[in-house]
């Protein structure tokens, strides 16, 4: 082959190669992060009532169900995954159960927590976990015992159900995220929180049911006698411990599916907005 012909053929090959797109590696697909998880550790029900209360994983056919809270607020609005554990006498709260949950909800039960269970909750909170507490008589007499085994370590105590009728609790102007766009929530038969003077240095009081003498807010006489001058009786409070977040709500009834004739549910007042704010803050959404 002549030198001239070789150069011509080489030039043609280079031109052909220049016109051929060089395949590039496709970017690897970014894996979709797993949704944050909320674990409800709900109390068992009073045997004589005949059915369980405030379940998040039931069929939603009873007004007391939490299925709307789960489906509409937690799963749809906040994109959280929801699990449920029923705190029977045979069940136990362990570090293994708590881990991998962004939020743990303690619906109280008629039994004390074992020291190992309190330790597990304290370690979870100290490591940046979020806890929500509420008590209710439908979880059994002395149902608040399990909540107080933890809360008293923070200088806070949940009081027994006051068996009072429906009432509205007004929210004062507050910059806190869970109070945004809330004028009032509606509750019934509430278990309020006694927050000591010392505990108020860490806790933020979001809403109180006051004055305590009015219908809906009144404490039982034994509890009223225990309130000291500098104590606060709160319906909603929050507290932070480093990255950990803690909240207390005086009534689980506002989470009910409804409709409720005498109780309360998500449809009343600003209950639905409040539920979204509360869990959004706890889950850091």
User: Over the alpha carbons, how many angstroms does the gyration radius reach?
Assistant: 27 Å
User: How many individual helices?
Assistant: 7
> Quaternary status of these chains?
single chain
Strand order of the largest sheet: 2-1-3-4-12-11-9
**Low-confidence runs of at least 5 consecutive residues:** 6-18
Distance separating the two termini: 74 Å
Taken as a percent bin, the fraction of beta residues is 15-25%
- Helix/sheet category: alpha/beta
Task: Count all strands and give the number.
Answer: 12
Binned, the helix content reads 10-25%
- Average pLDDT reading: 88
What is the N-to-C order of secondary-structure elements (H for helix, E for strand)?
Answer: HEHEHEHEHEEEEEHEEEH
Largest sheet: 7 strands, mixed
Which overall shape is indicated by the principal axes computed on the Cα atoms?
Answer: globular
Model description:
This protein has 285 residues and is of the alpha/beta class. It contains seven helices and twelve strands. It has helices at 3-18, 67-77, 95-98, 115-126, 145-151, 221-224, 271-282, and strands spanning 37-43, 81-87, 103-107, 130-134, 156-158, 167-170, 184-187, 193-195, 203-207, 232-234, 236-241, 244-249. The strands form three sheets. The chain has a seven-stranded mixed beta sheet with strand order 2-1-3-4-12-11-9. Strand 11 (236-241) and strand 12 (244-249) form a beta hairpin. Helix 2 (67-77) crosses helix 7. The radius of gyration is 27 Å and the shape is globular. The N and C termini lie far apart (74 Å).
């Amino acid at each position: 082959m002549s030198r001239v012909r070789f150069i011509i053929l080489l030039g043609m090959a280079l031109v052909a190669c220049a016109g051929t797109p060089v395949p590039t590696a496709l970017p690897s697909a970014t894996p979709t992060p797993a949704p944050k998880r909320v674990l409800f550790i709900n109390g068992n029900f009073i045997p004589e009532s005949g059915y369980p209360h405030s379940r998040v994983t039931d069929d939603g056919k009873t007004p007391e169900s939490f299925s709307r809270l789960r489906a509409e607020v937690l799963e749809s609005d906040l994109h959280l995954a929801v699990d449920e554990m029923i705190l029977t006498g045979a069940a136990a709260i362990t570090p293994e159960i708590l881990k991998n949950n962004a939020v743990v909800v303690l619906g109280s039960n008629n039994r004390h927590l074992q020291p190992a269970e309190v330790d597990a909750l304290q370690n979870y909170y100290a490591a940046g976990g979020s806890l929500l507490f509420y008590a209710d008589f439908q979880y059994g007499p002395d149902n608040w015992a399990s909540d107080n085994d933890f809360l008293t370590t923070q200088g806070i105590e949940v009081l027994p159900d006051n068996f009072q009728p429906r009432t509205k609790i007004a929210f004062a102007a507050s910059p806190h995220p869970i109070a945004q766009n809330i004028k009032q929530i509606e509750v019934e038969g509430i278990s309020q929180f006694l927050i000591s003077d010392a505990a108020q240095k860490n806790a933020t009081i979001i809403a109180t049911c006051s004055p305590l003498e009015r219908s809906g807010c009144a404490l039982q006489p034994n509890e009223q006698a225990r309130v000291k001058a500098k104590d606060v009786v709160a319906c909603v409070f929050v507290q932070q411990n480093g990255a950990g977040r803690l909240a207390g709500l005086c009534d689980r009834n506002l989470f009910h599916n409804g409709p409720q004739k005498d109780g309360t549910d998500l449809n009343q007042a600003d209950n639905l907005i409040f539920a979204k704010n509360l869990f959004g803050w706890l889950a850091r959404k």
